[in-house]
Design a protein that fits this description.
With about 130 residues, the protein is mainly alpha-helical. It has six helices and no strands. The protein is rod-shaped and about 145 Å long.
């Protein structure tokens, strides 16, 4: 049980009666609108975004780093057979590129170069036939 203050019993008009202080934050219009919006969102089941932008970025970086580590581990776990197959595949691709370059060079060559090459071949064939 609390003792009641003396000023309640006295009806002295000279005494200043205490009043509850007004909280300026709660009386502001912005605060009231925000509080109303939060209550409506809570009723709907929508949670406000509590995470600051920096925390979101850091979490995204962590996720990316974990994914990258998993990919690196998967590459390290490749068997010898897979490594050999990859090497062969790369060699075949290089050979195909070289063949394509040679074909393009031959197709783009002027007519006189083609004729000269044909003459050389026929000359060599004739020389080989004479030697035999």
């Amino acid at each position: 049980i609390m003792a009641e203050p003396d000023y309640i019993e006295d009806d002295n008009p000279e005494l200043i009666r205490p009043q509850k202080l007004v909280n300026p934050v709660k009386t502001s219009r912005n605060h009231q609108d925000l509080h109303r919006e939060l209550l409506m969102n809570q009723k709907r089941g929508l949670a406000p975004q509590n995470k600051p932008e920096l925390q979101k970025v850091m979490e995204k970086r962590k996720r990316d780093q974990v994914i990258k580590q998993k990919e690196e581990e998967a590459q390290k776990k490749k068997s010898d057979l897979e490594i050999e197959l990859l090497k062969r595949q790369q060699k075949l691709e290089q050979l195909e590129l070289e063949k394509q370059k040679l074909q393009e060079e031959q197709e783009n060559a002027p007519e006189f170069v083609k004729v000269k090459g044909n003459l050389r071949r026929t000359g060599q064939e004739v020389a080989q036939a004479q030697e035999s």
